Here is the input.
Amino acid sequence: MQTNQDVLLLAIESSCDETAASVVKNGREVLSNIISSQIELHAVYGGVVPEIASRKHIEKINQVIQEALNEAKVSLNDITAIAVTYGPGLVGALLVGVSAAKAISFATGKPLIGVHHIEGHISANYIENRELEPPFACLVVSGGHTHLCIVKDYGEYEILGYTRDDAAGEAFDKVARAIGLGYPGGPKIDKLSKEGNPDAILFPRAKVNGSDYDFSFSGLKSAVLNYINSSEMKGKEINKADIAASFQKAVIDVLVEHSLQAVREYGFDKFAIAGGVASNSSLRATFEAECKKRKIKFYHPSPIFCTDNAAMIGVAGYYEYIKGIRSDYSLNAIPNLKLGEKINRNNSFKGEL
Ligand code: KG4
Ligand code: ZN
Here is the structure.
């Protein structure tokens, strides 16, 4: 049941290979969450092909938006505002969602709110944890990003560390390709690791000189590739499950160590994870156990809200909406938008509220 006071956001996400739309009520209640995944299309090529992604988004976007409205049992008339991911991501993919959102905003006169994709990932934690409120520490681990940050307030972030080279998810995908598991590698390594010994091979845990909180995963990826090559040269058969489990443990060890150090140094009693890699079963179990030992409350979204979705954009968009932040029709796709950066947004929306 909707009332006049309810804020209903129609949210759109098309930054990579999922075309997604959602209706979110009052920032925390997801009325619909439609995701059209392109994974199978890109799997043939071993990774996301940007032009194919854009073309598929164009084909699917209206259908996905209509489905999101239908499932939420609302029409565009009931919607308060439109939130859309405008960066970071693939430019051609982002433009599809941004254009659709602008068109709906223009046709209906409803406000438009550009949302940062990573802010969306972090905000996914609010969906199933109604009591969670900033400030807290958060680790964002996705296919394109690895950030350790402090969520100071809704929409306000302080970045403590980030990856200097590959993102955590990228490392999972590259190692999966090297051992012949295919794309996307993360879920496949997660599954295969359960059959392997995480202590079978000691892969490096990289430290970044001069920074406690930055990450580097390219050396680990090279170490795995070298291990495979040298085994092949010696005619030794490789144990894929052991490689997967040992690699996964090396990534998790570094993510957990850096995160817990930050939580301790900044004195937080709340810690959250976000992004596609946050659905990794071993990462979740490790954080669960380590946080419990230290009496830190550990938050994580369900796997469906970890990987790309539009519900998380609706949640982040809601907190922008109530602060009065609006985007005008010059809103553009910004492929390399930094976390905390606010571009193309203002609070001078002249349309009807
Ligand atoms: O957040 P996301 O859907 O997209 C980006 O914004 O990048 O993250 C996708 C990444 C991919 O690299 C994928 O392999 C990884 O998340 N991923 C996982 C798991 N599920 C997805 N990595 C490790 N374990 C998983 N279970
Ligand atoms: Zn993402």
